[in-house]
Structures are given as C-alpha cells and as structure tokens.
Write a structure and sequence with these properties.
Layout lengths: L1 H18 L5 H27 L3 H29 L10 H33 L5 H27 L2 H23 L3 H19 L2 H13 L4 E7 L4 E7 L2 E6 L2 E6 L3 H13 L6 E5 L6 H5 L6 E5 L3 H9 L3 H7 L4 E4 L3 H7 L4 E6 L7 H4 L4 H8 L2 E12 L7 H15 L4 E5 L3 E7 L9 H10 L9 H7 L2 H11 L14 H14 L1 H10 L4 H21 L4 H29 L2 H24 L7 H20 L4 H30 L6 H31 L1 H27 L3 H4 L4
Parallel strand pairs: 5-6, 5-8, 6-7, 8-9
Antiparallel strand pairs: 1-2, 2-3, 3-4, 9-11, 10-11
Helix pairs in contact: 1-2, 1-3, 1-4, 1-5, 1-6, 1-24, 2-4, 2-27, 3-4, 3-6, 3-8, 4-5, 4-27, 5-24, 5-26, 6-7, 6-8, 16-20, 20-21, 22-28, 23-24, 23-26, 23-27, 23-28, 24-26, 25-26, 25-28, 26-27, 27-28
Length: 743
C-alpha cells in the first residue's frame, strides 16, 4: 500500500514535470491533489470498511486496481495534449496544471486513501494488539521508504517509466494474491489475479512495455518528429528535428536549437564581446553549441570554457550533431566541462574577461539559479580586471508591457546589488552587462565600431550601421530608463525567487490570465499582513479551546501538523532544487527520508506510555526554528547543506508521523470504532497537508520567501501547541509543564 503510493508519486511527479515544462512549483500542486484525493478516499471508505462483510475481497481488488492505475496515469499524462489538442509548446496555466494532475492522480490516490481504513479493519481482525491505526500507519510509511529508496538508487537508472509502472502492477497483484491465500477467501478473485499476473509477466519479458513506452513518448510530442528522449539527474531531455535543425528540450522547455538562427545570436554574442577591449578568456554557461561558440571564435579569444546546466545536453549535441556543432565542440580553443555551471564556478579558480549566461527566462527554480543575487556574486568573483558579465531577457524596441518590465526590473535590481556598473542594451532581447571597475555608459558608438573593424568581423547582422542604431540613446534611452526607475526593482534571491513569480505572470497572461492576475495581487501582499492574519487565527483557536467542552485541540493539532509537515516537505524539496538543481532525480530520496521519518515517529509514538500531543507539538515548533536558523545562516558548503536538508526531511517526517497515532489514541473510546475514527483523522491530516502543499507552492515560498514563511509556520504551530497544552491539562488535570514529562 505505502510502497505503491510512493513509487507512483515519484513516477507521476517526474512525468508531470515534463508535461508542465519543468515548473517545480507544480510539485506542490501535485502533492496537494494527491492529499486531497487520498483524504476523499479515506473519508469515503471509513464506514464501508468498518461494516463490510467482504472487506478482504475489497482490499485485494483495490490493490490490483491501484497497480493498473499507475500505468493508466502515465499514459494519460503523455497523451492529454493529444486528447485535448494542446500544442506541445503551449504554456499551461495553473488551472490546467491543477485539473490535469487531479485527473492523472485520481485512479491511484482515491484508492490508496480508501485502503487505509480497510487495512485497519483487516489488521484488527488478525491481531489482538492495541493501536491498530498506528501500526497500519507505520507499515505504510515503511513500505513508502523502501519503495522510494529502490527507485532512487536502482530502478530509475535502468528502467523506463512504463516498465516501472508495470513492476508496480505485478507487485500489487502478488500482494493481493498472497492476502487472499492467507485469508482463504474469494477463490474466483484469486484465480483472476493469477491470470493477470501471467499476462503481465508475458508482456514484460516480450518487451511489450518498451513498445508502449516508445508509443506514448511520441504521443507527448505528437506534433513533432521525436528523435530521442532520455532522463538525467537534472531533467528529461527530448530531441526533435525539422528541416535539418535539432531542437533540444529540457523538461519540456525549448532549451537550444542547432544550428541557431544567426540573427538571434549575433547580438547576444558580439555586443558584449565588443564592450570588452580584449576578451581573451570567455566562459559560456548554457546553450553555447549551435552558433554562440562559433560567433565567439570570430573574436581574438585564447580560450573558451563551456558548461551546461545538464551535461546530458552536451552528449545529445554530439549525438545529433551538425557541421556547425562539430566545429564548435571539437575546436582546440574550446574546453567543454560536463558540469552544471554554478557548481563549476564554485570549484574553479579561473578568472574570465567575459562570463556569458544563455538560458531561457527564470520560469523555474532550476533556471532561476542563474538569475539570483547569489549567482551574480559568484560570477563576480571570477571576473578578471575589467571583466564583464552578460545575461539577457525578453524585451522590446518600442514598448515594454508591464509584465515584461517587471521581470526586467527584477533582474536589473538584482544585478545592481552586485555590480556597480550595469548597462542595458535594449532590443527584442534586452542584454544586461555588469561590470565592477569599468564605466559601461562611457563606451561610445565610435569605440565599438573601431573594435568591430579591428577584429575584421563582417558579413552578418552586426555592422557599423547597426551599431549606430543599437547604441542610439535617443531611441532606446527612455526604455532603458523605464527599467532603471528607482524604487521599482525587486531583488531576486535564492530563498525568495521573485523572478519566478514575474516569469509566471508573464507566461500566464495569455494561457491563464486569471491566475496571472492572482499572482500579480499576491506578490504585493506583505509579510506583516500575513503575520496579522495568522496571529488572529491562532488567537481564535486558543479562545475556542478555552470555551469548548469537547476536544477541538485534537483536530486542530492534526490539521496544523498535516499543513506544517507538507509545508516542510515541499520547502525542503524546493530548497534542494535551489541549491543543487537536480531534484528531478533525487526527489525520490527526499520522499523516502520523509517516509522513513513517518515510520520512526509512528513507532515511537505507539510506545509512549501516555498519548500526549503537546510534546510532539513542541517538537514541531523547535524543528521549525532550527530550519529557520539554517536558512538564515545561508551555509556555503555543498555537503553540509545537503546533509542538513536530508536530516530535516527525516525529522519533519518523524514529527508528522508521531502525531497521528497519538491523536487516534486520544480520540478512540474502543477499538470497535477504530476504522471510523482513523479514517476521519486521516482525512483531516491529509486535508491539512493539501493546503500546506498548495499554499507553499503558489504563495508562501515564491512570495514570502523561505525564512518569512517559516516564521508564519512557527506562529501557527505555536498556537496549536498552546491549544494542546490547555486541552490536555484539562483532560489530565495536570500542569502544562508536567505534560512534557508524562510520556
């Protein structure tokens, strides 16, 4: 049950990241839908499981259906664009993400939620021990950890998604068959499961899965001639061809075209190169092959280092080469580093005359890593005397729309935090030049034309006439000044990715204007306003606990812990992407650590002599404070940062897992009602997790930033802790302090 759910989660998240163009914030939407559907399934099945006479048969049938649902979900994700006539390059807005992920997850998540109360009923029937719901929760978490671990370190590296989904189907059929055999029920269903197993094994060994994988991959790219698709630790890489050109996609985003149209790259290369008197050492980060490197070679450079955010892209460039890419990738003065650009800069000691960044707009956290103040500081450390930094964004030569202007202002403000001198070269792509010592504004048209002639560059777009046009301050000065307006810049940081919000608004204005308007309003909500709202909610909760004769603190604790647990889970996943960039591969490990924590916390909670919630609530508050201190310290060491994220994921899972069995114990009057109570509390837990995931993805992290969001969580759980102390003090007639020593 737990193993299938987690393995299916990993597969579906990876597939949806490709379908949703790599937007990691979609992870929050996906997890929110998963929890909502599981809550619905658990709540729906709670009474059915308690009173059904055929609960063993129903449990086995559900297991088989979940296995089949994994394959159906993957096929749906790969074919929905074909079914609903979406263009393969069309940006899908937030509502589409929510609806598509809801439909893709429904066959698995509803049934998985329904299995929980049925599992409680089945275990209660064969075991006389107390705490049935807690043990089912524990076994589910252990299965989740084992499945996630197998996927990360073994299966994902060797098998495609359809093959993995088929293995899940086979394992579920085996589990259902064993369960039916052990209970001696429903022979006709047992025989049916046996037939399904034989058919699946035949299809697996006759390579039917590989054919289905190839067919479904082509459906995802139904408008194009798909040449190859392959997974790396950073993303899914797909290659399509048309009229002698190859276009490379990273998680569905057009990343590079070889050969590139010359007019699109000459400005991007020659203008920054001409602004430097003698660019001998150049570093290109991203998208260099297919034209940029060859244009750089027209200048008197001695060496050019070239890195990619995903080294697999370089492999694909070589596999699907053109005469131009062959020339670039094998030129003596070009050194290719199969290493992510930010990591390369942290390890190298070299200094460069020009560092050129060439990526799509920062619409994802992976891409945003190259547009933040932290990255700009890292690049500045590797600039030689009079060195230049270059990056580009969408622009216009006539009028800047508000969305484009906001995005440009965000990056300009971030550059100004690092580089004293920043010059904007206005065009259909605005080129931003940053320098430490050089006065960029003093470089004239004549000086650039003299350098162009001295380097004997001719025959393309960049001519002396074009330079006069491009550096015309009367024509383009007002547009540049509009971007440079004082007080309009919003700084883009690793932990507060404002450029991602601006990029999402820009991309959603056509496909999802309502969501774009929501983001435009949300980004202006202040932290102080949110703090007041959360504070009022907390005070209301505490007053309700004082005045109520019932136990509202149990539901409040379960809901807020579900919310906080999923907030921590999503935040740590996205933080891993911010710092390292390869969550696409390691999301399974982060999920497995969270699930291992759930198992450990559940086990320890069941061994407590008294089921008290207050100590766990206090632990969650302390944990949130420690996570805040970690992000506030902004550690530089890669190993220390990754280790801390792993440890925090485990602890977050442990604290979340400990609370559920304790809440069930405090709510249950007898084991006869365990299915109903466990199903109800499980649903509340999942609904809290739903809101935690969705708000973290679309508001708390991108708008508030990691540190401010953690402060809000600390206040929220502080209120929940106060409620638990008051409620359990009344229940046990003990002082709040004694509650922590009565375990």
């Amino acid at each position: 049950m737990g193993g299938t759910a987690t393995a299916a989660q990993i597969l579906i998240i990876r597939e949806l990241l490709v379908a949703f163009y790599g937007s990691e914030l979609a992870i929050g939407v996906i997890l929110a839908n998963w929890l909502l559907l599981e809550a619905a399934g658990s709540y729906w099945a709670r009474k059915w499981a308690e009173y059904s006479r055929r609960h063993v048969t129903v449990f086995a049938i559900m297991q088989v259906c979940i296995g089949f649902g994994c394959i159906l979900s993957v096929l749906f994700i790969r074919s929905f664009k074909y079914i609903f006539h979406f263009s393969t390059g069309e940006i899908l807005g937030f509502p589409y993400m929510a609806i598509i992920s809801f439909l893709a997850l429904a066959p698995i998540a509803i049934l998985d939620g329904a299995l929980f109360p049925f599992g409680c009923r089945g275990l209660r029937q064969v075991s006389r021990k107390q705490g049935v719901a807690g043990r089912v929760y524990l076994y589910q978490a252990l299965g989740s950890f084992g499945a996630a671990l197998c996927f990360v370190f073994w299966l994902i590296a060797w098998l495609n998604t359809i093959e993995l989904a088929s293995i899940l189907f086979i394992l579920n059929c085996c589990s259902a068959y064993y369960y039916l055999s052990a209970t001696g029920q429903a022979n006709w269903i047992k025989n049916s499961v046996k037939i399904i197993l034989l058919l699946l094994l035949c299809m697996f060994f006759l390579k039917g899965n590989s054919r289905l994988h190839e067919f479904s991959s082509r459906l995802l790219w139904y408008e194009h001639d798909l040449q190859a698709t392959q997974n790396s630790v950073y993303s899914n890489i797909a290659v399509i061809s048309k009229e002698g050109q190859y276009t490379f996609f990273a998680n569905g985003i057009p990343y590079a075209t070889t050969p590139q149209p010359t007019a699109l790259i000459e400005e991007k290369v020659h203008l920054p190169m001409l602004f430097h008197a003698s660019p001998e050492k150049v570093l290109v980060i991203g998208g260099g092959a297919g034209g940029i490197l060859s244009e750089i070679l027209k200048h008197p450079v001695k060496s050019t280092d070239y890195t990619e955010q995903d080294p697999l892209i370089i492999t694909c460039f070589e596999q699907f080469s053109t005469p131009l890419t062959e020339y670039e990738l094998h030129h003596d003065s070009i050194v290719i580093h199969p290493q992510e650009g930010r990591l390369f800069l942290k390890k190298t000691q070299k200094k460069y005359d020009l560092i050129m960044v060439n990526f799509p707009i920062p619409s994802t956290l992976l891409l945003n890593r190259y547009y933040t103040v932290e990255f700009f500081r890292l690049a500045r450390e590797h600039l030689a005397k009079n060195g230049l930094f270059s990056i580009s964004l969408p622009g216009s030569e006539t009028f800047l729309g508000q969305e484009v202007k906001n995005l440009n202002q965000t990056i300009y403000g971030s550059l100004k935090e690092v580089f004293p001198n920043v010059r904007i070269l206005v065009g259909n792509e605005n080129i931003f030049l940053g320098a430490v010592q050089k006065d960029l504004e003093s470089i004239s048209q004549k000086l650039l034309i003299d350098r162009l002639e001295a380097r004997n560059i001719s025959g393309g777009l960049i001519t002396d006439w074009y330079l006069r046009y491009k550096i015309d301050q009367e024509r383009f000065g007002p547009l540049a000044a509009d971007i440079q307006k004082v007080g309009q810049q919003r700084v883009n940081n690793d932990q507060q990715p404002t450029a991602v919000i601006e990029s999402m608004i820009f991309l959603n204005m056509i496909s999802s204007p309502i969501f774009a308007d929501f983001l435009a309003v949300a980004k202006n909500i202040s932290f102080s306003a949110c703090l007041v709202i959360v504070g009022i909610a907390v005070l209301t909760m505490i007053v309700c606990q004082f005045r109520s004769r019932k136990r509202p603190y149990i539901m409040a604790s379960i809901f807020s812990t579900g919310f906080t647990g999923m907030f921590m889970h999503v935040t740590l996943i996205l933080a891993f992407q911010i710092y390292y960039g390869y969550v696409y591969h390691y999301i399974g490990l982060l999920i497995s650590l969270f699930m291992l924590g759930l198992a450990g916390g559940s086990y320890l909670a069941m061994r407590m002599s008294k089921p008290l919630l207050a100590p766990v609530e206090a632990g969650i508050v302390i944990h949130a404070m420690l996570v805040y201190a970690f992000f506030a310290a902004e550690p530089e060491g890669l190993f220390i940062s990754s280790l801390a994220i792993y440890v925090f994921s485990f602890i977050s899972g442990a604290l979340t897992g400990a609370e559920y069995p304790l809440a069930v114990s405090r709510s249950s009057q007898s084991d006869k009602s365990v299915s109903i109570i466990s199903g109800k509390l499980y649903a509340v837990d999942l609904i809290g997790g739903f809101w935690g995931a969705i708000l973290t993805a679309v508001f708390l992290l991108p708008v508030m930033g990691i540190k401010n969001a953690l402060l809000l969580i600390i206040v929220l759980k502080g209120g929940s802790l106060a409620m638990a102390c008051i409620g359990e003090k009344n229940d046990l007639k003990a002082s709040p302090i004694n509650l922590f020593f009565n375990i």
